[in-house]
Design brief:
With 415 residues, the protein is mainly α. The protein has 16 helices and four strands. The protein has a single domain, classed as Rossmann fold (3-Layer(aba) Sandwich). A four-stranded parallel sheet has the order 2-1-3-4, with helices on both faces. The structure holds 2-acetamido-2-deoxy-beta-D-glucopyranose (4 copies). One 2-acetamido-2-deoxy-beta-D-glucopyranose binds next to helix 8. One of its GO terms (cellular component) is Golgi membrane.
């Protein structure tokens, strides 16, 4: 009997090879480009664009000037996509200038950031906002922004973050494929040294990812003095470090630090996973995850402490009231914008433009349907609040052909 090759499989293989060749070529040329281009330039001039502020609301007395020059160090798996949406809307509303990535949604992560990775970058150009994924590199970021720019970032309990990263990126980290058993997460954390290979492809997703994102070495032992030095560095460089596990409180502190209005802080939770796709971790497993990610755990503990000290300074009562107000305003927007069922799985999202990006092999990330009867004055705001990151960046003019090509490949060939 002759063996018949499946024509669909052959098709997939040919297409897959083609896509990989194109992307490989792209990565090679782009890498070369950024190396040759990174000569040192003068830092940018101090300009603060005009921002119109309402100064007539009795509830919010404006006594400060809103900050418009911002560096948001977007960490992975920390609720940072929701924050990105807030920043993109603020920037658009106030006609601020974004330093956007070129043809993808990050600045060549996991490579270090270089300003030549910014779309249409020319020496001497100055921006208001930098907010896409990158591996932080302070001197390069600083050269894009006025000297008064506010730097902030967001951290998450490394136990939760590890769980999220382990699942979301598993297809990108080949060393996780050979972990046996049903609960790979637990197996890995019980015997990390059996499974972890620091030289393996994308291994940074498996250890101290926050340290890595912030530009530091991610294999340091907790006792290493460089862990302490790195934490001190973050404390000096960033005006504010938010805590993802207390999202609303974080936004209120941010609003206060940036002198923004409650209107600017409204949000819907974006890029969340279906509850069934989140594995619950026992206290023992959490402890193992924190021990394994010791540098991140130390980092987190430090900034969790400074966070609550800031809440204290802000006023506990005042914080509670403001969080309640933010809840109320978000619920109001939800009633106006979102179709009754709340967050839904991708296949139930009717408008293709509203479908979120999915990890390889499974559609666990939730999105939303817009209500059909949104009053005219809210329709644009609703749409923007619910637009996923990739589509929003495309709307802002980032040509994401490489990301779209990869997305197509991922959804049609890999699954
Ligand atoms: C807001 O109004 C107060 C009182 O009228 C004034 O002192 C203050 O400068 C105003 N703030 C801004 C940002 O315009
Ligand atoms: C402030 O005044 C402007 C112009 O008079 C008005 O359009 C706006 O709605 C007012 N804002 C608030 C929050 O009262
Ligand atoms: C780093 O070490 C110094 C000196 O031992 C100590 O005072 C400081 O609190 C440490 N910082 C952190 C973030 O642990
Ligand atoms: C963060 O700090 C608060 C206040 O000190 C504390 O109650 C909480 O347990 C800390 N969280 C973690 C995960 O350590």
């Amino acid at each position: 009997m002759r063996k018949r090759t499946n024509p669909r499989l052959t098709h997939k293989l040919i297409l897959g090879t083609l896509v990989i060749c194109i992307m490989g070529f792209y990565c090679f040329t782009a890498q070369t480009h950024h190396v040759t281009n990174s000569v040192s330039m003068a830092s940018c001039a101090q300009v603060t664009p005009h921002v119109h502020v309402w100064n007539n609301s009795s509830a919010e007395k404006v006594t400060c000037k809103p900050k418009v020059n911002l560096m948001f160090m977007k960490t992975h798996k920390t609720g940072s996509s929701t924050m990105l949406n807030i920043l993109l809307r603020f920037g658009e509303k106030n006609q601020l200038k974004f330093a956007l990535p070129h043809s993808r949604n990050d600045f060549f992560y996991p490579s270090s950031f270089f300003r030549s990775q910014v779309k249409n970058y020319r020496p001497g150009l100055c921006y208001n906002i930098v907010c896409n994924h990158m591996r932080f590199n302070a001197p390069e970021v600083e050269k894009l922004l006025p000297g008064d720019a506010a730097f902030f970032t967001i951290l998450r309990d490394p136990a939760e973050l590890f769980e999220s990263s382990f699942h979301y990126y598993k297809a990108y980290v080949p060393q996780t494929w050979r972990i046996p058993g049903k609960n790979k997460l637990s197996e890995f954390l019980t015997y990390p040294n059996r499974y972890f290979n620091p030289e393996g492809m994308n291994s940074f997703y498996l250890r101290n990812l926050q340290f890595f994102d912030l530009g530091f070495e991610n294999h340091l032992e907790v006792g290493d003095p460089r862990v302490n030095e790195s934490i001190e560095y973050v404390a000096k460089r960033f005006q504010l470090v938010l805590i993802s596990d207390h999202y609303e409180e974080s936004l209120i502190l941010l609003k206060d630090a940036l002198c923004w209005q409650m209107d600017d802080m409204l949000f819907f939770k974006l890029n969340a996973r279906r509850a069934v796709a989140v594995s619950s971790m026992s206290p023992e497993l959490k402890a193992k995850a924190r021990e394994w990610n010791g540098a991140d755990w130390k980092l987190y503990q430090h900034f969790n402490a400074t966070f609550w000290a800031r809440v204290e300074a802000y006023g506990r009562r005042r914080m509670e009231e403001d969080v309640r107000e933010l809840h109320r305003r978000n619920a109001e927007m939800e009633a106006i914008c979102i179709d009754g069922r709340g967050a839904v799985v991708a296949e139930d999202i009717t408008d293709g433009h509203m479908k979120p990006w999915q990890p390889i092999g499974e559609a666990t990330i939730l999105g939303y349907n817009l209500r059909a009867d949104i009053p005219q004055q809210f329709s644009e705001l609703c749409r923007k609040m619910l637009t996923p990151e990739i589509q929003y960046l495309t709307d802002l003019g980032v040509n994401l052909w490489i990301t779209r090509l990869w997305g197509w490949f991922k959804d049609n060939v890999l699954s």
